[in-house]
Write a structure and sequence with these properties.
Structural class: mainly alpha
Distance between the termini: 12 Å
Strand content: under 5%
Radius of gyration: 31 Å
Number of strands: 0
Helix content: 55-70%
Largest sheet: none
């Protein structure tokens, strides 16, 4: 069974690769949003999509060392502009380990450029008024770096970050701030591993102080979205603050591309930030996916449990009154659009001007989070009845018609006639011989109902004001929130593949011959 499961899982890999390519194409072709319409930083949005990188292959990957070297190697007749120097100087103390060891050996023009880059940091480490010549500055930085060389080690900063998280020293925060932007990388790496609210607040406060101009700095330390916002910022800007390691440099021609970064986003669950409110997409997905998946799973179970007996009943009375009645009712119900049915149910069963039988919004009543378990379950059922009904009835009709056809096909087989000839009752024949074989095509179809249910949830959640993927997606379409739409596309693909995989597993349990045949031919 394990080999069968792994084999089916392996077959889903090409599908996921195709989904990443389609999602990447959506990101690459999407027009840039309007700064006025959405109130976002378009330049930051472009960096989040890595529009400064080539599509699939990077001939010359550029980390901080490469960028600084290019600036130092600029021709004497076209030195870096003041704006370029100012932008590079904003990277702060990360420049010290790259520039200072090379200062004495640089040509005069390059040396002057390097000292200009370091000039904004001089007041942080000493008195710049006593530095009258370039040689004074070179000596100054040489002395500073020699005296504090051990502090510019990532292992030392990690120890400081751990002490800050554990609260074992009162001066750790000042020590980290004194190291400036060089401490940002190890601090964010430590933040990524933290789950304690107090430690997370300490790191967020530190990062807001060190990098007040970063977009993530607008999140308050007590905001649960702050951690994800800083991790997202670091994912986009990491190469601006450090150099590649040996392994990174080896594979950077592929990883430092737009497609490589998009695949890395998926593998590390760094899905970016929403254009609508700037919130990290992962936190919004975590909150809303559970709502949609719960409703879809309940609707799928309800649809299957009702579809099987309805289909069997119609097949047993083939061309009879029951079969015809079920066929007519199924055709009428299936012809009614979900949006129309949901609107009618909302109008006539959820308050004025109709009956107040069911609530008109949400999946829980105010204050139910403190109620007993039984009360919470009852309240959820009360809220979810109409949404589940709207989600389930199209799938129920489809599955019941397939179940009827499957039963009619199986009931004509020789082994069914043999079972009847042995004197078995009709109920025993249907239960033991017909139904088990007739379930196979219905199970196959049931797996493909999962993406349909998720798609239908867009309408149902909007009408019943349910805070799930569907309602958020509607708002994302209106605001052209492309990162959210791409993330939902990927989530839908993963859930669909999971549904098909679950169908294959159930299929093998219902008919073990299928498992043996597939295992023997493909994965033996």
């Amino acid at each position: 069974m394990v080999r069968y499961f792994l084999g089916r899982l392996l077959l889903s890999v090409p599908t996921l690769v195709g989904v990443t390519l389609v999602s990447f194409a959506l990101l690459a072709l999407a027009p840039p949003p309007s700064r006025i319409a959405l109130g976002i930083d378009v330049q930051e949005y472009a960096r989040g999509l890595f529009l400064d990188l080539p599509l699939f292959f990077n001939e010359r990957p550029r980390d901080l060392t490469v960028v600084v070297t290019e600036m130092l190697d600029a021709p004497a007749d076209s030195p870096p502009t003041p704006r370029e120097l100012a932008l590079m100087s904003r990277r702060g103390t990360v420049l010290i380990p790259i520039l200072v060891p090379r200062l004495a050996a640089l040509a005069p023009v390059a040396q002057r450029t390097a000292l200009d880059l370091l000039a904004p940091l001089e007041a942080q480490f000493g008195d710049p008024s006593r530095l009258e010549t370039a040689q004074d500055e070179v000596n100054f930085w040489g002395e500073i770096y020699e005296a504090r060389r051990l502090e510019f080690r990532r292992s030392y900063i990690r120890r400081l970050a751990n002490r800050l998280a554990n609260g074992t020293s009162a001066h750790v925060r000042e020590d980290l701030l004194g190291l400036g932007t060089y401490a940002v990388g190890p601090v964010i790496e430590t933040l990524d591993r933290e789950s304690r609210p107090v430690a997370i607040r300490k790191f967020v406060e530190l990062l807001r102080t060190a990098l007040p101009e970063a977009p993530a700095a607008r999140f308050d330390p007590t905001d649960p979205r702050a951690k994800e916002a800083w991790l997202e910022w670091w994912f986009v800007h990491e190469k601006d603050y450090r150099k590649f390691g040996d392994v990174e440099r080896t594979f950077s021609s592929i990883t430092e591309t737009r497609y490589g970064k998009w695949v890395e986003r998926l593998l590390t669950l760094r899905l970016g930030s929403s254009l609508r409110d700037g919130s990290p997409i992962l936190s919004k997905l975590t909150e809303r996916t559970s709502v949609t998946i719960t409703l879809a799973a309940i609707a799928a179970i309800v649809a299957f449990l009702f579809a099987v007996p309805i289909g069997v009943g119609a097949a047993r009375d083939h061309r009879g009154r029951v079969d015809r009645t079920i066929g007519i009712v199924s055709f009428v119900v299936y012809s009614m659009p979900v949006v129309w049915v949901a609107t009618l149910l909302m109008r006539f069963l959820c308050g004025e001007p109709g009956l107040s039988v069911f609530p008109d919004a949400g999946l829980s009543s105010p204050g139910m989070e403190h109620a007993a378990l039984g009360a919470r379950i009852g309240d959820f059922v009360w809220h979810a009845t109409l949404p589940v009904l709207c989600l389930a009835y199209p799938s129920m009709i489809t599955l019941s018609r397939f179940q009827r056809t499957a039963v009619l096909d199986v009931i004509r087989d020789d082994f069914v006639r043999t079972a009847r000839a042995k004197g078995l009752s009709e109920n025993v024949v249907m239960r033991r011989h017909v139904l088990r074989n007739a379930l196979l095509p219905v199970l196959t179809l049931a797996g493909f109902q999962v993406p349909l249910l998720i798609g239908t949830s867009v309408v149902v959640e909007e009408i019943f004001s349910i805070p799930g993927l569907g309602r958020e997606t509607v708002e994302a379409v209106v605001t052209r929130d492309v990162p959210w739409l791409v993330a939902v596309t990927v989530i839908g693909a993963v859930v669909s593949i999971a549904g098909v995989l679950l169908t294959d597993i159930l299929y093998s349990f219902v008919d073990p011959r299928t498992r043996r045949a597939r295992t023997g031919s493909a994965f033996a």
